[in-house]
Amino acid sequence: MPPKLLFVDDEPGIRLTLSAILERNGFQVTVAATVAEALALISAQQYDILISDLNIGLPSDGFTVVSAMRRTQPEAITIILTGYPAFESALRAIQEQVDDFITKPADLPELVANLRQRLERREQRTPIVTKRLQEIILENRQNIIEDWLRMVEVIPEMRLLSRDERINHMPEVLDELLRSRSSVEDITSERALDAARKHGVRRREQQCTIPMILEEGRALHFVIADYMRRNLLLVDISYLIPDLNEVSDKIHRLVQESVKAYLQIDQEPKAA
User: Looking at the domain 133-267, which fold is it?
Assistant: First the structure.
């Protein structure tokens, strides 16, 4: 029975030509044009090989398809197809999750030979051990702070502050955000809120503006979402949406608390 191959690419011409060549070389090829189509096929059928474009509809969403395949069909060979050689270093960093990457335009005889060799020496693999989003944030805590700092230090007000003044209570806020895994009714702990209040008061003392505090929150949300994207193959997909919503809600609540503390200074009674 010919090896079953799922090919995912949003370019009609490539889907048509590459699938035809692979079929002539003895592969039973199924094609998908979108991530949604690919996920539906992966859940319904078994495959020996997955070849997915890196950018199907959005940047790097090919990793979503690879992630689904590795979780549900861990023995399948997974290959990323990319038109951007600059992605090589990033792809090598996740080599344990993706079996190989191929740069467009692919050397077709080499691709076919590569697939056959991998099928011959394919070994049984265990499913990937996945993690909750909060675990990934915790493991990358310091890098997240550094990336967040690089984003906010371009704000004009931030340029007047030292590195320590820029960071302020952000590590404490981030730690509390992770620590306070709580119910919907009590989505953010009092310790987290207290850290956010201190942050807002300190920003007021530093003569920063409320828009800057809002920008800090936006930057933190962006950095965390980017780390989720970078570690998509390790994220527990079944909890991804609720975990991401919870983190987003907490960031929003903490920013609100910072702004309230910032404004509270104006409402405090003046000493006689």
Answer: Globin-like (1.10.490)
